[in-house]
Amino acid sequence: MGGQSGSAPVFQVNSFTEEKVKKDVNGITINYEISGTEGKPWITFAHALCNNLTLWDDQAELLKNDFQILRYDHRGLGRTSAPEGPYTFPMIIADALGLMDQVGVDKTHWCGLSIGGMMGYGLAQDHSDRLLSLISCDSRPDAPPDYQNYFQHRIDVAAEKGMEGLVESTISRWFTPESVLADIPILDKVRAMIRSTDQTGHAGCCQALKTLAFGSRLKEISIPTLIIGGANDKGAPPAALAAAAAEIPGAKHVIVPAAGHISNLENPTEFNKELKNFLSGF
Fold first, then answer.
1. 106: which residues sit within 8 A by CB, 6+ positions away?
2. Which of 137, 141, 157, 210 fits a disulfide with 148 by CB distance 3.0 to 4.6 angstroms?
């Protein structure tokens, strides 16, 4: 979908509401779904790089009776427009806020994984009036040099080999060796999401990830916060997440055993237990 930034914005919702809205959000077309129970508190789910809103299918089903749920595809990913980059965190945060405004989400719990959780740090720092809580999953707050180099490497590989060239290396980075060796069924879902990612959008998001820098202001976050991540996450290891949680007043850090970077898919039982435990406090 590269170069679609000038197309008419189209918003898609699922059959829970049978509503379709066409509004301009930050100059792009955002694909989203609303589900759950009207009148309940909002929870917004934001996915990882090379994913789409279906990353959160299990969690949307889990919480549908207790929350009104907003899921969407980020700029450049899924079925949302993929204009030329580079993208920035202020830009993709503005996308989220614009979408929330258009669909009537005043305040929401924010649950994001990887880039989605990183956005949560920024939202909690600068837009805490819009959040009920922050659940940051497998999301470090800063990009050290090796992290920046990794995302440039992704851009370079995709330019040479297309998105197919990133599929298996990404699977190996995101999931534990045991899951990769067993080729657990969920891996095919993730492979399909990576293959379907727009190369222009992927590059734009990688450019944003190279600029990740929310760590210096973590102490400013004042909303209830859960930082959760896989025990074997290579990109956001437990030590990095524990350090982030220690900077946020009152934050809780939880490690999901037998899981890598996409902890909600690799160990959904433990992930969902911790998610529900945290949300039960509201």
1. 42, 100, 130
2. 210
What element of type H or E holds 62?
Answer: helix 57-63
Q: Can you give the CATH number for the domain in which 182 is found?
A: 3.40.50.1820
Rounded to an integer, what distance in angstroms lies between the CA atom of residue 192 and that of residue 189? Answer: 5
Residue 85 falls within a domain, yes or no?
yes
Instruction: Give the residue carrying structure tokens 């059959």.
Output: 15
Domain that holds residue 185: 32-279
C-alpha 172/C-alpha 46 separation (Å) is: 22
Average pLDDT for runs of 10 along the chain of length 282? 38 42 76 95 98 97 97 95 96 97 97 98 98 98 96 98 98 98 97 98 98 98 98 98 98 98 98 98 94
Rounded CA-CA distance 170/110 in Å is: 25
Q: 21: helix, coil or strand? A: strand
Residue 182 inside a domain? The answer is yes
Is 10 domain-assigned? no
Dist. CA 120–CA 113, nearest whole Å: 9
Domain total for the chain? 1
